[in-house]
Specification:
alpha/beta, seven-stranded mixed sheet, two-stranded antiparallel sheet, globular, binds S-adenosyl-L-homocysteine
Amino acid sequence: MIKDQDFIKNPNVPGPTKEEVRCIVICKSGVKPDDIVVDIGCGTGGLTLEFAKRAKTVYSIDINPDAIETTKQNLEKYGLTKNVEVIEGNGFEALDKIEKFDLLVIGGSGGKLPLLIEKGYNKLNNNGRIIVTAILLETCAEAISSLDKLSLKPDVVNVSISKGEISKRGTMMLARNPITIISAQKGI
Ligand code: SAH
């Protein structure tokens, strides 16, 4: 995993998803070397870079031009540009340009999560997976009910990571925001 502090950052762009959360997302995704991955809301590229290392192709989409630029910079920094196509635009519309895929990762939806999940599900190969990372309770609820409408039973995990900051007095645990990781598999 790439360390959080090693990503190139832009103050206008959220992310990267914290290292320990990226670990869980990668595990839950079950990503395989032949997979085609779509990352909607690529932000700083935190998840895009991890998938680029492990999948065949990654389509990274963000509505914010600064996020597109930052993701590209990070891909270049780590020599991961070859199998990643970075697309500026709304995830919902960008999905039209992509054929079938194996893994849909949604880190930002701009209030259109149910539509994104429905459209993404239709383009998902059989046994394909959907993963939503949510910081808002409303996003969790929307994700779960959208997946339920598709008869999918999601795995829902909420994690609160604390990281030790070492000082002369000792190691102080600093809490990070909780995040919920919702994942589901098509055809199961
Ligand atoms: N997973 C990223 C962080 C995601 S932050 C990382 O690890 O770096 C969420 C991102 O979703 C933001 O950059 C935001 O611009 C983007 N976003 C929000 N709504 C969107 C939409 N409808 N289509 C595409 N991107 C969107």
